Amino acid sequence: MDPIVADFFRHNLWANLKVLDVCAGLPDATLDATVAGTYGSIRETLVHLLSAEGRYIETFGGEPPGIPLAEEDPFPGFDLLRKRAHLSGEALIDLAAACPPDRILTGTYEGHPYEMRAGILFAHAIAHSVEHRTHIETILTQQGIEPPETDGVAYFQEAVV
To answer: Distance between CA atoms of 30 and 139, rounded to whole angstroms?
Structure first.
């Protein structure tokens, strides 16, 4: 695949870690807060976002990240989430860098077979992460907390330059 796609996942890992850093120091009431139109609480959204990354890796035939994470389990804590973010983030970077542009993924989703180009799943993975980080940032803002800057410009200024 084009190395640009791997850059999307480098940014994604960086942005996930920025959000985790901000959220790790917040009180329980804030972590349990939600706002209409978002996925759920901050805790639920973080677990959902990182659980999904593991499912994307498995769809590519890769090994799931070494730290189990299930949305139905109790909140695992921020240390585990950071480790999981690193593992799944690095795996997605590697997959994006090595994936041939014509790779077709096959499987079953909600009982229906599918075939899709790998790039479609990569696009979904990025959009999914951005959407849920935005949900968390919206909840933070509504709680009077300044959310982290996670856009491409902030990434360039902090992590690339």
So the answer is: 8
Per-residue model confidence (pLDDT) at position 1: 62
Helix, strand, coil fractions of the chain, as percent rounded to 5: 60, 5, 30
Our CA angle for 26, 161, 150, nearest 5°, is 30
Contact 137, 146 (CB under 8 A): no
As a CATH number, domain 3-156 is: 1.20.120.450
Is the model's pTM score more than 0.90?
Answer: yes
Domain extent listing, the chain: 3-156
Q: Which of 11, 29, 14 is nearest to 145 (CA)?
A: 29
Tokens of 123: 């696009």
